[in-house]
TrEMBL record:
It comes from Sphingobacterium oryzagri. This is Threonine synthase. Its cofactor is pyridoxal 5'-phosphate. The gene is thrC. Keywords: Amino-acid biosynthesis, Lyase, Pyridoxal phosphate, Threonine biosynthesis. The keyword Lyase applies. SUPFAM superfamilies: Tryptophan synthase beta subunit-like PLP-dependent enzymes. InterPro entries: Ser/Thr_deHydtase_PyrdxlP-BS, Thr_synth_N, Thr_synth_N_sf, Thr_synthase-like, Threonine_Synthase, TrpB-like_PALP, TrpB-like_PALP_sf.
Amino acid sequence: MKLYSTENKALRVSFEEAVFHSLPADKGLYMPEKIPALDPAFIKNIQQYSLQEIAFQIAHTLIGDDIPAAALKAIIEEAINFEAPVKFLDAETAVLELFHGPSYAFKDFGARFMSRVMAHFSKKDDQLLDVLVATSGDTGGAVALGFLGVEGTRVTILYPKGKVSKVQEEQLTTNGQNIRALEVDGTFDDCQALVKTAFNDTSLHTQLRLTSANSINIARLIPQTFYYFWAYAQLKSQGVQDVVFTVPSGNFGNIGAGLLAFKMGLPVTHFVAGTNVNDTVPRFLKKGAYEPKPSVQTLANAMDVGNPSNWVRIQDLFDQDLEAIRSTVSSYTYTDAETTLAMEELYNNYKYVACPHTAIAYLAAKQYKKDHPGNYASVFLSTAHPCKFPDAIAAEVFEQVTLPEGATSLAGKAKLATPLAVDYDAFKAYLLANK
Ligand SMILES: *Cc1c(COP(=O)(O)O)cnc(C)c1O
């Protein structure tokens, strides 16, 4: 597999280089030079395969010989070791649950696969790989639990003190082993700025082998294609012919992976993006002008993104052709009040407790069906378990949440976090004193 930069299509880098550098120096994003089609015979019989078998077929088709088949199989078996079931709420509406991994969010797919790909490429190297990551909540848990115990790696997570939920904090701070948490007396933006400064500090690079677990890493995007094919396989085995996927979107990585799957031959009719009031993409699809705005805080805070970093990938997939994007992707935007009502509606009508991100996808799926009636299964993606967002869910609905077993056991564990001021010198001193 070779990749180019969306800013320079003449560039060619190896998969390994794209994995360790996340971003090309020109600030574009890495994209596969060719999007290979999955074997049509495989798609025709896809309902016969397991999630892991489907994942291997996709990854092998994309990555080629950069990871030998046996090693790739082992990576997938270790990384994708949890379920992603499609559950019907009524005859034509279903939810694809992506929160059955260790951090209870879909980001587990990306983080777990990426960690093992990095470990695979690191074997020949002796120096420990230092992964730095700033989180507003969900990314940190997925990265921490994704890298936990992965040999040759160490993760340092910076999170804003008092600004993540209880379950999120427990996932960040109770691991020990190769995971360290820094509780920053500041905001998520402060955390991100500290990490960014570290990456730009050449004197640090001479002493540590630094890498980022950035959400735009190609090794996080690839495994997110797996569950679209897997959902399609489950639906096909139930006799469903046509599918529309609705994706709650912030940085547009998740739906971007769906569109990559589409380009590889996933036979679905359409994609719908649901956003909160951070509506840069819906405005773009309506008006044709891309006008990013500063992000606004909402109940669906993992989608509070004013300038979605993966959008350029989607434009690249469609050769910058706005009409082509419009014919495949629709989008709708919802306020917090609408999101809250949707969580209540999901509970009242279906006894289904959803997180706010999932509720936005539900609303967008419903709206699309109203605007485009038809005989297709409307499948919306549930990106996180509701237990991670207690403050965003009405108390009487949250009471109905059943905590996953793992979350109950985390609660008893000691918190391991080092306090840190918003001070780059202190951060650097910590990294160098604890090598
Ligand atoms: C990260 C996240 C999203 C947004 O996904 P993108 O790939 O950034 O569009 C949605 N829901 C939850 C729960 C998330 O953690």
